[in-house]
Amino acid sequence: PVVAFPLPPLFCVAERWRVTMSALLRTVVAVAVLDSTFYGIGRSASSFHGASALAWGPYDRAAAKELERPGPPASNGTTGDRARIPQPHLRGRSAWQLSSGSSNRTRRLSSSYDSSTGHITYNGYRYITMDQCAAATSYGSCSDSCQSGYLSLPSGYELVPYSSDIVSNVVALYPFGTHVVVFSNGDGYGGSAYSPGNYWRGSMLAASGSTYACNSCSLKVLMRTYGSGNPSPTKAPFPQ
Predict the structure, then answer these.
(1) 165 touches 189 (CB < 8 A)
(2) Does residue 14 sit in helix, strand or coil?
């Protein structure tokens, strides 16, 4: 008699192996296709971002640089590293802005401090208060924190007409040895030592002929000249 031994279902095992490997292969192919697709999308987005950065990068970098500007010397009088003062009025803005009534972009100017003369240079003008105390001097460190005495404008100087740009780029950034700086229209705005750049009060300018003083304390009158120069102020007698 023929003895039959049970054999393992080799065919079934092979078939199951084929089905499993086929499914695994399809999964690998699908993952590869998805990866390739997303890689292509990523490259396209990167290319677009790169082109945008090439076109606008210099302006964005300029805006970032203007978010901080060198401030006055340290309080110990050294002329080395200066504190960097944040510019809240520039935060969130581009260094290039659309000018009023024009489609041309205009560069926002920045001010700079001249430690040798105590002046602030902005848009071609040099600014300082009429007592000629350096603009970076902290409150109480000038000979007087208030311009109560009448002073004459030095030759080549003028009172400063109000401008929001001047408030933001000149007045708000430096202490001027006082609390409030006065414009030619009599309006006073806080320096960096007191409510920086904020309106304080009007009618603060007193005039007697060609001499000027302030109607309150602690205030000083702002003046400017075009170009260079560092004249000495002329004190006028207080009117009787």
Answers:
(1) no
(2) helix
Cα-flanking dihedrals φ and ψ of residue 154, to 5°?
Answer: -65, 160
Helix (H) or strand (E) holding 17, with range, is: helix 10-66
Q: Which two tokens stand for residue 208?
A: 């007697």
Whole-angstrom Cα distance, residue 21 to residue 15? 10
**DSSP structure string for 51-96:** HHHHHHHHHHHHHHHHTEEE-PPPTT---SS-PEEE-TTTTT--SE
Q: What is the largest CA-CA distance in the chain?
A: 147
pTM, two decimal places:
0.53
Neighbours of 91 (CB within 10 A): 10
N-to-C CA span, the chain = 147
How many Cα atoms within 13 Å fall on the side-chain side of residue 42?
Answer: 6
Q: Which of 81, 116, 110 is nearest to 169 (CA)?
A: 110
Measure the CA–CA gap between 70 and 73, rounded to whole angstroms. 9
pLDDT in tens, the chain (240 residues): 555 555 556 666 777 777 888 888 888 888 777 777 766 665 655 555 454 444 444 444 444 444 444 444 433 343 333 333 333 333 333 333 333 333 333 344 689 999 999 999 999 999 999 999 999 999 999 999 999 999 999 999 999 999 999 999 999 999 999 999 999 999 999 999 999 999 999 999 999 999 999 999 999 999 999 986 555 444 444 333
